[in-house]
Amino acid sequence: MTVRTDWEVQVDQAIGEIAASVTTFGLYGSSHPRAIQSVQRLVSKLNSLLESEPEIAFVLLGEELFVQGRPFTRVSRHSPSLIRRFRRREIEHATFQFGITDGEIRSFLDDLARTDDSPMRSRSHIQVGRIDLSERELGGADDDAGGKERHKLATVRDRVTLIQECFTDFARTGSLPVGELVRVARALWKRLTEQPDPFGLFAPWEGDERWPAVNAHNVAVLAMSLAKLSGVAAAICQDLGMAGLVHDVGKLFLPAEVMAREAELTGDELELMLDHPRVGLAALLKSGQLPQLALVVTLEHHLNYNGTGYPRFGRPRRPHPAARLAAVADLFVVLFTARGGRGLLTREGTIGWLEEHKGSVLDPNWVGALRDLLDQDQPSPQPPG
């Protein structure tokens, strides 16, 4: 794919300048005239991009580099070099804000060129780091602020119906009602703080038509419960709830006949199914306002713990911790709600399958957390229905 727009040309040049500047810093040091010139060129290119927007974000998700939410791995020939640099320094996002100085860029490039284990630092106008599970302060507005909202989302069926309406709008228009899903996630979190047993909040199997919404609801419940049990901060738990709600939205854009024969697909139809995480991510990137963890989970929730799975990347890699959590939650929900709710699988069979696949398909730590959740002093869960 070739660069098309003027903006993409500028971004491609900035990506290339970052990669080339890091090489210059590594060869000559930050005080060499060539390094000083590279800093000046990069500041000029970034400031040109920042003339029309307050900040520009470079985000690495799996093997894909996104700039302002747009994929650049295939658009920019310089992307592979920058991806290698970011991965080597364990950077998943770098955001440049209007007002960056030569000094900030110089120290950023100096950090990026290092070969030791020293951490990357953020600056006043440059934020860098990882998309993390535990480094966010508790926050967020009170959920269900009005009595009408509290009533509207009071029951499982109300929440599933709202999720289904959101998915229907998304599939039809390409625009996701993010605010409505945020309300669902907050309502679920409130219920979990009042009723710690997540299985009491599970939606039952209601047939194929409502399955995407039921699955999303139950994965959100279980993901938040597992994170809460593990001591994750409340705000991150709610982000994981949002991730659970949207993790499988790529399937909303698949032909109905493909979804109807999901377990029997071969050839091109199978390729469509295997690509649905990328499709879902691309669709969500157009919506905005979603937590980054939701984007990570959407792309990686079918990657296995051992690095296999899909979507296919250039080399095997272990998925993000949030995606590993979502994978355990998703598989449990599929086996427990869909198959168990139809009488096709027992609770013991569900747990046995997860135990059998830990360490290969599933993260053993999250499988262990699920066992801890199941072993708490509460009634043994039964398939909802």
Output the structural class.
mainly alpha
Counting DSSP H or I runs of 4 or more residues, the number of helices is: 16
What's the order of the H and E elements? Answer: HHEEEHEHEHHHHHHHHHHHH
Weakly predicted, low-confidence segments: 134-151
CATH architecture of the largest domain: Orthogonal Bundle
Output the strand order for the largest sheet.
3-2-1-4-5
Give the class-level CATH name of the largest domain.
Mainly Alpha
In the CATH hierarchy, the third-tier topology of the largest domain is known as Hypothetical protein af1432
How many individual domains?
A: 2
How would you explain this protein's 3D organization?
By secondary structure, the chain is mainly alpha-helical. The chain folds into 2 domains: 6-129, no CATH class; 147-375, Hypothetical protein af1432 (Orthogonal Bundle). 55% of the residues lie in helices and 6% in strands. The chain has 16 helices and 5 strands. The chain has a 5-stranded antiparallel β-sheet, with helices on both faces. α1 (6-28) packs across α4 (102-113), α9 packs across α13 and α13 (292-300) crosses α14 (321-341). The longest helix has 23 residues, at 6-28. It is elongated, with a radius of gyration of 22 Å. The chain starts with 5 loop residues before the first helix and ends in a 10-residue tail after the last helix. The model is unreliable at 134-151 (pLDDT under 50).
